[in-house]
Amino acid sequence: MPMTDLLYARAQMGLSLAFHIIFAAAGVALPVLMVLSDWKGRRTGDADYQKLSQKLAKGTAILFAVGAVSGTVLSFELGLLWPEFMGQYGEVIGLPFSLEGVAFFTEAIFLGIYLYGRERVSPGMHLFSGVMVAVSGAASAFFVTLVNTFMNHPSGFTPSASGPMDVQPLVAMFSPGWQYQTAHVLLSCYQASAFAMAGIHAFVLLRYPGAAFHRKALSVALPLACVTALLQPVVGDLSAKHVAKAQPVKLAAMEGQFETERGAPLRLGGLPNVETGEVPYAVDIPKGLSILAFADPDAEVKGLNAFPRDEWPPVAKVHVAFQVMVGTGSAMALLALVTLGWRWRKKAWPHGRKLMWAWLLSGPLGVVAMEAGWLVTEWGRQPWILRGVMRTADAVTPVPHLAAPFWTFTAVYLFLGVTVVLLLVRQVAGTLPTRDSGLPGGEAHVH
Amino acid sequence: MSTDTILGFAVAGTFVLYALFGGADFGGGVWDLLASGPRKAEQRALIARAIGPVWEVNHIWLIVGMVLLFAGFPRAFAVLSVALHVPLTLLLLGIVFRGAAFTFRTYDTRGDTVQRQWGLVFSGASVIAPVLLGMCVGAVVSGTIRVEGRVVVSGFFASWLTPFSWAVGVLALCLFAFLAAVYLTHEAPESALREDFRRRAMGAGVAVFVAALVVLLLAREGAPRVWEGLLRSPFALALHAGTAVAAVASFALLWTRRFQWARVAAAVQAGLIVLGWAASQHPFLVVPDVTLHGAAASPGAQRLLLVALGVGTAVVVPSLVLLFRVFRPVPTPSAGSEA
Question: What keywords are annotated for this sequence in UniProt (chain B) (predicted)?
Answer without folding.
Answer: Cell membrane, Membrane, Transmembrane, Transmembrane helix
